[in-house]
Structures are given as structure tokens and as C-alpha cells.
Write a structure and sequence with these properties.
Structural class: mainly alpha
Helix content: over 70%
Radius of gyration: 19 Å
Largest sheet: none
Number of helices: 12
Shape: globular
Length: 262
């Protein structure tokens, strides 16, 4: 987190952002570095049950901070990048989107549900490893993989700022969906209203799935199925561009590989 905070601090200095956005990001970066340093300093004298709770659940807060912090840099939309992402979809994803538009409603609802479940999927992956393995390093590597994948995804926000396709395309292809309304509500209240390239949903889900597979192949199979459904939902339900999903999978794999090397 300290490395990421330092990176964003530099971004706030050099990115063509407004004064208010720069100041907010700088303050948040300094606060993040201070809190993490204090926790590290107090760690040896902290009661074991507190240490366990922080180790287990603090990474969830880290992932949220990784997402929200760079969005405070008020920058214009990169029209050139958005056009390239759209052109790539027009060439490679258009037939897939059209096929799902003809799919039955239950399949569309399944994709929307998978996209919604991306959020609880991260703590669920940790709990599965904690229950099925006795190796503390497996759970530590799990969160390391997820956090690195998130950083590789959200760290590009200061430089590649685009709208998600759902915001500017005429209509969402396919049958109407009740779960879609819930997804829209979550995104309206918790999203920074920007597209992440690479896709954060795909990056963190990939890292989580690979980490669970490394600890338990049986449980990992379920997480891999969820990953495929989430990635498909991102594209065909127009939450993301195809390029977001492909690079998100790479970011997740890099996060997993880095966690295994620690």
C-alpha cells in the first residue's frame, strides 16, 4: 500500500488534474502511508486476536482504497483511448454481444448475478482457503495476489480515463433483467463512474480463482466458473470493453504469480 500511495502521490504531482483533486489525493496518500506505518510499528505488541483480524480483513479495505483514491484526480476523459477500445469491441466482441442478445432471460440473469457476486467472491475465497487448508501462507498469498491485481488495474486510472460502454451505448443488448437494476444501484452509489482498464472485476476475480486453485483444486473449480461468468458479463452486458477484460485477466495472473514468489 505504501508503494501504491507513493505512486499516486507522484501522479498527483504530474498528472494534468485540478488543484482540489491533487490536494485530496496527496492528503490521502500521506494518510495511507502514515496508517500503514503505525500499524507495522505497533504490530509486535498487538494482541494476537487483533493481529489475526487485521491480517484477515484489512486487504478488503486496501482494495477499496486502491479503487477510490486515483479517481479523485479530476481529469478529462481520454477520447482517443475510448475510441480505440470501442473499435476493438466492434471488431472482436460484436458477434459475442449479439449472440447473448438472443439468449434466454435465465442466462442473462445468471450473468448479471455473477457480476453482482464479484464483491462477496473476494472474502469468500479467503474463507474457503482458511477452512480447507491449514497453511497460513496460503491465505496470505491469496490477499497478496488480490491486492497486487487490484493495484495493477486501478493504478491506470490517472492515465487512461474512459467511460464504461454502458454509459454511452444506446441500449443494453439482450432481455431485460431484474438483477441488472440491482447492479445499476450498486454502481450508482459505490462506483467512481469511470471505466477501469484493466478491468478490476476481472483482475481480482482471476487472482482469487488462481489462488484458491493453488490451495484446493476442487473449490478452485467453482471460482474458475465464476471467473468465466464474471468476465463474460463484463463484456456482453457492457460493463466493460473486451480489452479491459483481457488485460484484467493478465493483471490477475501477474498478481497471482507475484504472490507465489513471496
Amino acid at each position: 500500500m505504501i508503494v501504491y500511495a507513493g505512486y499516486l502521490f507522484v501522479c498527483a504531482q504530474v498528472a494534468p488534474a485540478g488543484t482540489r483533486g491533487r490536494s485530496r489525493v496527496r492528503a490521502e496518500c500521506l494518510l495511507t502511508a502514515l496508517v500503514v506505518s503505525i500499524v507495522a510499528w505497533l504490530w509486535p505488541s498487538t494482541p494476537p486476536h487483533v493481529v489475526g483480524a487485521v491480517r484477515n480483513w484489512a486487504p478488503l479495505a486496501y482494495v477499496l482504497a486502491l479503487y477510490w483514491m486515483p479517481a479523485h484526480l479530476v481529469l478529462p476523459i481520454d477520447a482517443r483511448a475510448q475510441r480505440r477500445l470501442t473499435d476493438f469491441d466492434d471488431r472482436w466482441a460484436v458477434h459475442l454481444v449479439a449472440a447473448v442478445a438472443r439468449a434466454p432471460r435465465w442466462f442473462v440473469e445468471l450473468l448479471e448475478l455473477a457480476y453482482l457476486l464479484c464483491y462477496p467472491l473476494l472474502p469468500a475465497g479467503f474463507l474457503v482457503l482458511a477452512l480447507l487448508t491449514s497453511d497460513d501462507r496460503a491465505t496470505e498469498r491469496y490477499w497478496t495476489a488480490v491486492v497486487i491485481a487490484a493495484a495493477l488495474s486501478y493504478g491506470w486510472l490517472p492515465w487512461i480515463r474512459t467511460h464504461p460502454p454502458r454509459q454511452f451505448e444506446a441500449a443494453i443488448p439482450g432481455p431485460s433483467s431484474a438483477i441488472r437494476r440491482l447492479n445499476d444501484l450498486v454502481l450508482h452509489n459505490a462506483s467512481v463512474q469511470l471505466n477501469t482498464f484493466p478491468s478490476g472485476h476481472t483482475a481480482t476475480s482471476t487472482a482469487a480463482a488462481l489462488a484458491v486453485v493453488a490451495g484446493s483444486a476442487g473449490a478452485g473449480a467453482f471460482f474458475c466458473v465464476m471467473l468465466v461468468l464474471i468476465a463474460a458479463a463484463c463484456v456482453v452486458r457492457r460493463y466493460h470493453f473486451l480489452a479491459d477484460v483481457l488485460t484484467g485477466a493478465i493483471a490477475g495472473a501477474v498478481g497471482f504469480a507475484a504472490s507465489q514468489a513471496i
